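Aim 2 progress update. The chain analyzed this quarter is reproduced below.
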Amino acid sequence: MLAEDVPFGDLTTRALGIGGQPGLMNFSARDEQVVCGSEEAAAILTRLGATVDVLRSSGGRVTPGTPLLRATGPAGALHMGWKTAQTLMEWAAGIATATNAIVLAAASGGAAAGTVAVACTRKAPPLTRALAMRAVVAGGGVMHRVGLSDTILVFPEHLAFMDPHDGLAQAVQTLRRTAPERRIVIEVTSPDQAIAAARAGADILQMEKFPVRDVARLAERLKALSLCPRLAAAGGINARNVADYVAAGADLVVTSAPYTAPPCDVQVELKAR
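Predicted structure tokens:
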């Protein structure tokens, strides 16, 4: 991040000749938010030579005006780290706050309130996944998949390369043998396909863009057939509709919505000591 923003130092501060003067920089929340990235911001400023106190750790909800971070040191160090640290905290807090809004909304979804995990996908902007993951967890969510290496998720695009007649059963049998410690998640795009995947032995059915009414009907059909895969609702899930999916019978909701949330506002005051 520093290599991107100050590859050859801060020209303005250097040209003014003020880099060695002692300074103080305070970060505070300008709006209500779930804090995230304060530790990473502190690491950036520390690396530049500042002394930093983290006043609010990632994961806490704060009100406007709450102090988040305090840094002292040479003006040159503070100016070089200022915008990088501020932008990181604002972007991460935006994701954390949006995730938390979905978590809170999911908890109002009926009998399963508080038991349904909000899982965020890996669709964060490229090369931001580590910080995006941290923000999701700070907001009370979990990661759906960190990457392709950690979970099994069978898409229709995988089944296109299997036997057209019994590809689902073949896939489940193969995965039970080759990845015996993993749960098998199968993405389905219709209730009938979901029933077929459940009969084939899927552990989790990822219902892609199912309307709420179809989730409820599928849950009833599976119960009547004594089939009990977990149901994951995915596609278009947000704070406005998540409670409906939980009430309909989803055991898990999968979303990418937090990654497009606006950043939260972090105010920075930088002055001479």
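The radius of gyration is 23 Å. The chain has a mean pLDDT of 95. These observations will guide the mutagenesis experiments scheduled for the next reporting period.
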